[in-house]
Amino acid sequence: MLEFQDVRRSFTVRGGVFGHAQGEVHAVAGVSLVVRRGETLGLVGESGCGKSTLGRMAVGLLAPTSGRVLFEGQALPAPGARGETGARGRLQMVFQDPFSSLNPRMRIGAAVGEPLLAERLSRREREERVNAMLARVGLAPEHARRYPHEFSGGQRQRVAIARALVTRPDLVVCDEAVSALDASIQAQVLNLLRDAQETFGLAYLFISHDLGVVGHMSDRVAVMYLGRILELAPRAALFREPAHPYTRALLAAAPALRAAARRSAPALSGEPPSPFAPPEGCAFHPRCPEAMPRCRTAPAPALLEIAPERRVACHLF
Ligand code: SF4
Fold this sequence. Notes:
The protein is of the alpha/beta class.
C-alpha cells in the first residue's frame, strides 16, 4: 500500500552569526520499505536514527530529497501542494505529544472534526461522525465542548487518535505515540489502537525507541540505525532469532524481553555516531562487537534477503 523507494532526506545545518550552511545531515540515507494493507510495521531505533523523518515522509508532511514515496502506486503530492487531498485524508499521523499537536484554543469537537472539513459534510453529519469517534476512543459527547488543557495526557492522546481516525484512513503513522504516557495508560492506548485496527482494517507504521512496545504491536519489525534499515523481519522471528548485531544488542539491552540474544550478545554500549559525520563503511562498526576489517573499508552493506521475509544489512550474512 505504501512504498518507500530508495528514499533519502538530508537537512542543511546552518551556524555562525550569518547562518551559513555548514554541511548536510543525512537523516534518511536510502530506505526501501513497504507497508502492507492492514499490517502493523514497527520501526525501532535509538533517538536520532531518522525514524521520525521517515514517518513524516510517509504521510507527505516532508518531501524526500531523492527517491519516491508511493501510496497505492502514486507518488505523494509535495507538502503544501493544492488541489490533491485524497491521499492525505487516507494517511494520518499521531504524535508523541498530543498537547502540542492540538490547538489549545480549539474545542475538542472542532479539533476532531477539522480533518472532515474537506469532505463537505453538513454540520450535523460532521457532529455525528465526531461523537461516534469520541465514543470509540472512550470519550463522551460532552467532552467535545472542552479544551485540551481540561484533559489528562492519556485522554489527550485519545483525542489525537480520534482526530487521526475520523477520516477513516488506510494508514496511521504513530510516532512515539505512547512514549510520554504512564505504563497503565500506555496499555490502554495500545489496546485502543489494536481495536481500531480490527474495526477499520487500517495499517500502522508504528515508530518507537521501545522494542517492547514495538514487539507488542507489530506484525513485522524494521530496525533503523543512522538513516538506514539494518534488519527487517516478522516480529516472532526477530525476537526469537535476531540476526543483525545491532538488533541483538538492542534486545540484550531490553530487560523485559526474553530473547536468545540476551545470552549471546553484549548490551549496546556508547552513543550512536553523529549523522553529521557518519563512519565510513558499516555505520555500526564503532560499536559492533563482531566488526571485521572490511566493515570499516567496504561500502555499507546492502539490505539483503537471508530467508523468506527476512532481510539483513551486515557483512556477516
Ligand atoms: Fe558489525 Fe560488520 Fe555487520 Fe557492521 S557489517 S554489523 S560492523 S559485522
